[in-house]
Every structure is written in structure tokens, then in C-alpha cells.
Design goal:
The complex is a heterodimer of chains A (about 575) and B (about 70).
Chain A (H helix, E strand, L loop, with lengths): L2 E6 L4 E6 L9 H12 L13 E5 L13 E6 L6 E6 L3 H7 L2 E7 L8 E6 L2 E6 L8 H12 L4 E4 L2 H4 L7 E4 L5 E4 L4 H7 L2 E6 L12 H17 L1 H10 L4 H8 L20 H11 L2 E4 L10 E5 L5 E4 L3 H10 L5 H14 L3 H13 L8 H12 L4 H7 L2 H7 L7 E2 L2 E2 L9 H9 L12 H4 L15 H18 L6 H6 L1 H15 L5 H21 L12 H4 L13 H5 L5
Parallel strand pairs in A: 1-6, 7-12
Antiparallel strand pairs in A: 1-2, 3-4, 3-6, 4-5, 7-8, 9-10, 9-12, 10-11, 13-14, 14-15, 16-17
Helix pairs in contact in A: 1-18, 1-21, 6-7, 6-20, 10-11, 10-12, 11-13, 12-15, 13-14, 16-18, 18-21
Chain B lengths: L1 E6 L10 E5 L6 H8 L6 E6 L2 E3 L10 E6 L5
Parallel strand pairs in B: 1-5
Antiparallel strand pairs in B: 1-2, 3-4, 3-5
Classes of the chains: A alpha+beta (about 575), B mainly beta (about 70).
The complex binds iron/sulfur cluster.
Iron/sulfur cluster binds next to loops of chain A.
């Protein structure tokens, strides 16, 4: 990967640059965050010409290493106002990596009201008129691109909410089954919309293999790494069988499943929306209970959820989405939840922000609690069409709270809080508070240690050890997000020492380096600090590293836990 | 004494979801696992009233225990 493409949307020019030395050892999140921090003025308007949208495959993407096919997208987020990285599976990352493209930097903004499709081939990048795609949602765009270019074409696209620059808009990535994966969080679809790019197509004809400095060492490490993924009970058995949705019942039993907009920690109809029920339903109806989001995924946490007649409803049906609609918004019917998930893919909004904002709209009285059919209508006909109500909702949970004068608004840095209650799972509360991304569970997934007993055990209900746990995980995650690896490699990496060593060996074998575990930790620290400095320069202070006030005075049953960290305790997070 | 056992994920196969069980006094989680034919290393998480416990935890009459194999998500 030796090329960096700079796309200037102000004057419609492209430039192919060589990789500066200081960026050579970076990929994925490490690279997108470094570029955004170096080139985007922190106080710029996220939808203005000075923001940049950066795509970067991970350091190992395009190699045969299992799980390595993730693409990072970065920018200043219109939702949070912070720096943002969001990574996704799909085919684009591996295509770009094989084409030798280390990053694409999209800058400026067109002055004319015209829409574009960027077309990427081995000859370079061209600007194609895309006005005929305007008003179309993602599945229609993907179909049209397949009709035009054939099934192997890579597609990144935005739906109508992205065109309208709504803060919940995501960027969709075509997956190997012609369905959708998403750069979900932080409104990056709105940034793409502000650059007037409706779609990016990737034709990798003529691309070669990613060069590997030491193929023998690589093969040996790849084998150990893959074996560790299959040997660990979570990645080898739990995730492929039940998907991430196995968590519904665990969080419910532990009292950490936010229910009815964060009122309760347990949900009465948990069994109906659980991973066990979902697995049985998929098997009974002839869907697929295991499925990968990119070629080379051997964990296969994804699935294809079908209706009674066996027809496709959705895939990549995640715990967070099912929690948000099922427990938090009280929808009891998994089919309705699946249809909402499909609609969120189609119109292109983040399925976490989307689910959290729908529950907030229920709190506001806009949608009846638990009304899955009305949620589908609101997604399709309000948010998907950009009606005035749709624009209030489509701008995220915080906007809904403000518009309707609500107090119980679960956001940190204006990003919706996902599926784990911070009062009864305190480590994840530290991650929500301190993450450079706003509320984000993946940034430092303490659930592993607080709830699942992976990587040790830290009692979720006491404050002891949570700051350190979250810090260590956030540092490790920042590094893993730079490799192009899916975050689930963390389960074996936390428990099986050879797994982490093999990951480092893969990096060393690919690039001919001698990195040690300490170097990887240093990389993670450096990335977090770059991101934190950007946020500080953008106007954020430690006063923003806080959870909403209601968590401190509304005890959550069954443990009646409250959020009880002092400001000083939270701020210790940054002592490294 | 009587206790209630809730099983999840793969532990349900050929067993049950929820059941009332008769166990001896001073019974531990490990004893319940044995009664159910589950090997201890297969246990991921055991909870009593929403609190994590280890397999040597002694049970009281009437408690509900939740048992999970090693699973996870994210
Ligand atoms: S385990 Fe899941 S998220 Fe990770 S690469 Fe496979 S399908 Fe994608």
C-alpha cells in the first residue's frame, strides 16, 4: 500500500501522492486519526469545506490473515464535534489494499449543486455525474451499480439522510453477498453528503496481492492466529452460533440491559428477543446463523435472518440494534426489529443511534412504546424522506431530546449510549465518558471483563479497577483498530497469549519489522493522545467526559445502582 | 432443598431453560453443574440474583442461579 489519493471536491481534481515516512507504519484508525488531526482545523464546521473524509484499510488488510478486512473512515464528526473513526467490513477495504491504496483523503466541497460518484480503478480516480442517483436509498444504488459494473464492484454509498446531512447518517459498504455493512457511528454519511458524493465505486481489475516481506513467517503466524480464534470458546463457538445477540440474556440476568429508555436493567420479554430465540428462528426458517462480513472472516458472528417463507429480511443483525429496539424501545417481535434493521441499512442511518433515538422519540410521545410497525413507517417515510419530523429524529438522540424538552437523554458528547447500562456495568461507563469518540462501547469493551469473565474479572457493580480496565482496553483497541482486524479478535487475544504474539508477528512479517508488544501499546497510546488533543483543540474539556446527570440520581433496578464516580476519578483515565 | 436453575445458550441443549431442582443442603454451583452433566471448565458465567459468583459458591434454599457457557458478543 504505497499510494495516497487526495480528492479535491472544490475543483474536482485528484492527486496521487506517495506515503510520507511518518505515516508508513500506520493504517486504519491510526492513519485516519493522524491525517484528520494533522489536516483538519479542529474548530471547523464538520459539514464545511475544511473538514476531510478519510478512508484507510488496516495495516493487515488485503493479506490472507483472518479477520483483517476492515476499512476505517475518519473525519470530524457532525454528531459529536469530536474526531471520529468508524470501521466496517464489506469488500471495499480488501479491494483498496490490493490496489495499493493506503488512504483516500476527500477534501473541499463543490460550490455547485451537483452530485458525484467517485470511480476508483487501477488507472486512478474519476468524477462521474451522480444526479440520477439522488433520492435513492442504498439497496437501489447497490443494485444499479451491480447492473452497470457486475457483481464484483465495490460500493460505498449514502442514502437520503446522508444527502440531507443528518447526523445519524452512515456510510454503507457493499458486502460479499451484495448486502450492507456500515461505517455506522458519528454521522460520517453526512460528511460524505456535504462533499456531494453519493457513491464511490471500486473496480479492482488488475490489482495484485498485498506484498508480504517474509511469507514463511507470515504463514506460520497466520496459522497460530487462526487456530487461537477457533480454539477460544467465544470466537470459535459462541459468536458463530448465536451472534452477538447472545448478550441479551446475559445482560438481562446481570441487570445491565437498559430497558424502556434506560429506566430498568432487566426486560420482561428478554427471551423473545434473545440470541437463543434468534438462533432457533433462523435455523427453523432456513436462514444462516453464521456468516462473515468480509472474505477471510473465520469467526462469522453475522447471520442472515429470514422471514417465515425463507425470504431475506436482514443480515449483520447485531445485539446493539436488537437491544435498542427490543428492550430499550420495547418492541417484542424480532421480525419487526429485523425489518427496522433492514430499513436502517437501506436509508443509511447508524443502527445504534437509530435505535436509541427511536426510544427517545417514544419517551417524547412521538411513537407509542413498543410499536415496531410505526418505527418502520417513521424510518421509511419520515427519516428516509427527510420530512421535518424525520430531520429532527435523523439528527440523533440529542436532537430529539432537545426538540421535545426531555431530561432522560442517553448521550455522551451527543452520541447515543449503546446497550450496556453504565450504572450496573461501571467499566463501560468510564469508556462512554472518556472515549474520544463519544459514547462508544467498542472503544474499550469492558463488558468482556465486567460481565463475560474474559481477560479476568472486575466486578461490574463496584468502582474498583474500572478506570484502569477501560484505559488498558481503549489503548489496545486503538492499536487493533489500526490493523484492520475485527474487534472480536480481542476475546482470544485477552485470554490466549500466543494469539496476541501471532498478531504482532503478522505485522512484523508483512512489513519486515521488529515490533514488540510494548510498541503496539505505545501505538495505541499515541493514537488516543492524538485524538484527545484534537478534541481539546476543538473546544472539549474534561467537563465533557461526563455521563448525563440522570444516571447519578435515577437508581436502576434490580441492583438500584447509580453512577457514582467523582469527576476526579474519571479524569484519572488520562493519566498515562 | 429447592433451588431454581436457569440455563442459557448451549447449556439448554437436551436440558431445559428454567427448572426447579432438588439439591442437597450446602450444595455449591459446582455440585449443580455435576448434577446437570456440565463439566466445570465449560462454565463461562454463573450469577445469583444478578451477581457473579464462582463455582464454589454455596447456595441457599430458594435461590435462582443463571448459568452460561463461555459466550460473548460486542
Ligand atoms: S466476526 Fe463478525 S464483525 Fe468480525 S469480521 Fe466476522 S462477521 Fe465481521
Amino acid at each position: 500500500m504505497n499510494k495516497i489519493f487526495r480528492i479535491n471536491m472544490s475543483n474536482l481534481t485528484t492527486k496521487c501522492e506517495s506515503v510520507p515516512e511518518e505515516w508508513a507504519g500506520l493504517g486504519g484508525r491510526g492513519l485516519t486519526s493522524t491525517i484528520v488531526a494533522a489536516e483538519v482545523p479542529p474548530r471547523c464546521h464538520p459539514l464545511g469545506p475544511n473538514n476531510k473524509l478519510v478512508f484507510a484499510p488496516g495495516l493487515l488488510t488485503g493479506t490472507p490473515a483472518a479477520q483483517s478486512g476492515r476499512l476505517s473512515a475518519g473525519a470530524k464528526s457532525p454528531l459529536t464535534g469530536t474526531i471520529k473513526e468508524s470501521n466496517a467490513g464489506g469488500t471495499a477495504a480488501q479491494q483498496l489494499a490490493r490496489m495499493g491504496i493506503k488512504a483516500i483523503i476527500i477534501e473541499g466541497a463543490p460550490t455547485e449543486d451537483k452530485w458525484y460518484r467517485l470511480h476508483i480503478t487501477m488507472d486512478g480516480i474519476t468524477f462521474e455525474a451522480a444526479d440520477s442517483l439522488v433520492g435513492k436509498q442504498n439497496f437501489a444504488i447497490i443494485d444499479e451499480m451491480i447492473d452497470t459494473f457486475g457483481p464484483k464492484i465495490g460500493v460505498l454509498s449514502i442514502g437520503v439522510p446522508g444527502e440531507m446531512r443528518m447526523c445519524a447518517a452512515n456510510i454503507s459498504v457493499k458486502d460479499p453477498d451484495q448486502k450492507i455493512r456500515s461505517h455506522g457511528r458519528g454521522g460520517l454519511g453526512a460528511v460524505m453528503g456535504s462533499k456531494k458524493i453519493k457513491c464511490i465505486t471500486i473496480d479492482d481489475t488488475g490489482a495484485s496481492k498485498v506484498p508480504i516481506a517474509d511469507p514463511d513467517k507470515f504463514r506460520a503466524a497466520a496459522k497460530i492466529f487462526a487456530k487461537s480464534l477457533l480454539d477460544h470458546p467465544v470466537s470459535g463457538e459462541g459468536l458463530p452460533t448465536y451472534g452477538t445477540n447472545i448478550l441479551i440474556n446475559i445482560l438481562n440476568e446481570a441487570g445491565g440491559l437498559p430497558t424502556k429508555n434506560f429506566r430498568y436493567g432487566q426486560c420482561e420479554h428478554h427471551e423473545k428477543i434473545s440470541g437463543e430465540t434468534m438462533h432457533d428462528t433462523i435455523v427453523e426458517r432456513g436462514g444462516k446463523h453464521k456468516h462473515g462480513c468480509h472474505a477471510g472472516c473465520i469467526i462469522q458472528c453475522s447471520q442472515v435472518y429470514v422471514d417465515r417463507a425463507g425470504g431475506y429480511i436482514t443480515s449483520g443483525f447485531e445485539y446493539e440494534t436488537i437491544w435498542g429496539l427490543g428492550a430499550n424501545a420495547m418492541i417484542e417481535d424480532l421480525d419487526d426489529i429485523a425489518k427496522c434493521d433492514n430499513l436502517m441499512d437501506d436509508i443509511g442511518i447508524d443502527s445504534i443511534e437509530g435505535a436509541v433515538l427511536l426510544a427517545t422519540a417514544m419517551e417524547a410521545g412521538v411513537i407509542p412504546w413498543g410499536d415496531g410497525k410505526e418505527c418502520q413507517r417513521v424510518l421509511r417515510d419520515e427519516i428516509g424522506k427527510g420530512t421535518p419530523l424525520g430531520r429532527i429524529l435523523g439528527n440523533g438522540t440529542g436532537m430529539v431530546g432537545t426538540a421535545y424538552g426531555l431530561v432522560r437523554v442517553p448521550v455522551v458528547k451527543n452520541q447515543g449510549i449503546p446497550a450496556y447500562d453504565p450504572r450496573s456495568v461501571k467499566g463501560i461507563g468510564i469508556t462512554y465518558a472518556t472515549s474520544t469518540m463519544g459514547a462508544d462501547h467498542t472503544a474499550g469493551y469492558t463488558i468482556a471483563t465486567n460481565i463475560l469473565k474474559v481477560g479476568g474479572y472486575v466486578d461490574p457493580l463496584t468502582k474498583d479497577g474500572q478506570v484502569e480496565l477501560s484505559r488498558n482496553l481503549q489503548i489496545a483497541t486503538a492499536a487493533v483498530d489500526s490493523t484492520g482486524m475485527c474487534v472480536f479478535i480481542a476475546f482470544p487475544a485477552l485470554d490466549i497469549p500466543e494469539s496476541f504474539t501471532a498478531l504482532i508477528d503478522l505485522l512484523n512479517a508483512t512489513y519486515g519489522l521488529d515490533l514488540t508488544a510494548d510498541d503496539v501499546t505505545e501505538l495505541g497510546k499515541k493514537i488516543l493522545k492524538i485524538e484527545h488533543d484534537f478534541n481539546t483543540a476543538a473546544g472539549f474539556s474534561k467537563q465533557d467526559d461526563r455521563l448525563p446527570e440522570f444516571f447519578s440520581y435515577e437508581p436502576i433496578p434490580p441492583h438500584n445502582a447509580v453512577w457514582d464516580f467523582t469527576d476526579e476519578e474519571i479524569d484519572e483515565f488520562w493519566d498515562f | 432443598m429447592t433451588i431454581f436453575v436457569k440455563l442459557f445458550a448451549g447449556f439448554r441443549e437436551n436440558r431445559f431453560k428454567v427448572a426447579k431442582r432438588e439439591v442437597k443442603d450446602d450444595c455449591t454451583i459446582a455440585d449443580v453443574l455435576e448434577q446437570l452433566g456440565i463439566k466445570e471448565p465449560e462454565l463461562g458465567v454463573a450469577l445469583i440474583d444478578g451477581r457473579h459468583v464462582t463455582s464454589d459458591q454455596v447456595l441457599h434454599a430458594g435461590v435462582t442461579i443463571s448459568l452460561f457457557p463461555k459466550v460473548g458478543g460486542g
